[in-house]
């Protein structure tokens, strides 16, 4: 018990003396050279191409040039074009 009290007292004394204000002035004034660099941000527009896969189903389109019929079922695809 006496050893623990002695150790705690010595730690307390060391912490008190180590926290004492030090008014030491530096022996030399050091100069620091700071180089200034410019950062340039380049924004780039990109064109995103989204490739959509035709879902399974049937589509029919009619215009002045004719008729287009297409049907898709899994891997089977049928297209019929009828022109004037």
Write up what this structure looks like.
This protein has one helix and three strands, in the order H-E-E-E. By secondary structure, the protein is of the alpha+beta class. Strand 2 and strand 3 (76-83) form a beta hairpin. The longest helix is centred in the N-terminal third of the chain and has 17 residues, at 2-18. The chain is elongated. The mean pLDDT is 78.
List keywords for this structure.
84 residues; 3-stranded antiparallel beta sheet; 3 strands
- Judging from the principal axes of the Cα atoms, what is the shape? elongated
Using the CA coordinates, give the radius of gyration: 42 Å
Q: So how many helices?
A: 1
Tell me the total number of β-strands: 3
Sequence of secondary-structure elements: HEEE
Query: Level of helix content?
Result: 10-25%
Give the mean pLDDT. 78
Q: Beta fraction of the residues?
A: 25-35%
Strand order in the largest sheet: 1-2-3
Q: What class, by secondary structure content? A: alpha+beta
End-to-end Cα distance, whole Å, is 111 Å
Q: What about the largest sheet?
A: 3 strands, antiparallel
Would you kindly provide a brief summary of this structure?
20% of the residues lie in helices and 27% in strands. With 84 residues, the chain is of the alpha+beta class.
Detail the topology: elements first, then pairings.
Elements: H1 2-18, E1 57-63, E2 66-73, E3 76-83
Antiparallel strand pairs: 1-2, 2-3
């Amino acid at each position: 018990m006496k050893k623990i009290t002695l150790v705690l007292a010595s730690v307390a004394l060391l912490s008190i003396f180590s926290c004492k204000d030090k008014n030491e002035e530096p022996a030399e004034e050091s100069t620091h050279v700071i180089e200034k660099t410019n950062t340039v941000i380049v924004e780039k527009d990109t064109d995103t191409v989204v490739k959509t896969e035709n879902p399974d189903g049937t589509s029919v389109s009619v215009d002045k040039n004719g008729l287009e019929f297409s049907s898709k079922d899994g891997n089977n695809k049928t297209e019929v074009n009828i022109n004037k």
